[in-house]
Amino acid sequence: MEPVQVHEERVVTPRTASSTTTVASPGYRIGALVWLIAGILDVILAFDFLFRALKANTVGFADFIYSLGGPLASPFDGIFGVTVTNTTYVVRWADLLAIAVYSLVALAIVKVMLIASTPRTTTVV
Prior knowledge:
- By secondary structure, the chain is mostly helical.
- The protein has helices at 26-53, 60-73, 93-117; strands spanning 82-85, 89-92.
- A two-stranded antiparallel sheet has the order 1-2.
């Protein structure tokens, strides 16, 4: 009978560092959504302001921006009026005022959401 060879293998696995997963609070996610919407509105109003100031033709993308920017700025029409230079270029100040107001409203909403979603800490004595 032949001798039996015994072979032993030892597998050593290195310890892995533990990882933690951070989950954003619902208040943070809602705040990010509010800023996204405010950013989109501000970009539309900025394009509307620029297209009107540069007398862009009402075709294609410019027409699309005019159709969106007009209703967004309409609550602010008449506060500062419209400046017409050289009878061709129109500066519609309502667009700039709408950008400022919508940004401030977004800031207020995000701050309220941050306050509402912050967990309360209590001290038990």
